[in-house]
Write a structure and sequence with these properties.
By secondary structure, the protein is of the alpha+beta class. The chain is built from 2 helices and 8 strands, in the order βββαββββαβ.
């Protein structure tokens, strides 16, 4: 059985906050509780850079670096669009989407 869905990657950093709450945690919880997407995974990068081209990486001399985070999820186009409307309200986030086929065995 195969399904056509939309894959989403949301790029942000550990340093992104909203209302004193880590933004990544808030997004993950909201995707689960209120947007009810099928599933999501959060990845923590060991290093990266964004639009300002400053490289962020943790080291012994700089352990508090705002490391890159990626939240990835997929669902039907209608659920993804609803989730994206919510996510786009936050500043400084990069979002990538593409259509995929999910095969279940």
């Amino acid at each position: 059985m195969t399904n056509e869905v939309v894959m989403v990657r949301v790029y942000l950093t550990e340093g992104d906050h909203t209302s004193k709450v880590q933004l990544a945690k808030k997004l993950l919880e909201d995707l689960h509780h209120s947007k009810k997407v099928s599933g999501a995974t959060m990845f923590r990068g060991i290093a990266g850079f964004g639009s300002h081209y400053a490289i962020h990486e943790a080291s012994i001399l700089h352990p508090e670096a705002a490391l890159p985070l990626v939240i990835e999820f997929f669902d039907t186009e209608s659920k993804v669009q609803t989730a994206l409307e919510y996510i786009r309200a936050f500043e400084g986030i990069r979002i990538v989407t593409w259509p995929v086929t999910v095969s279940e065995t």
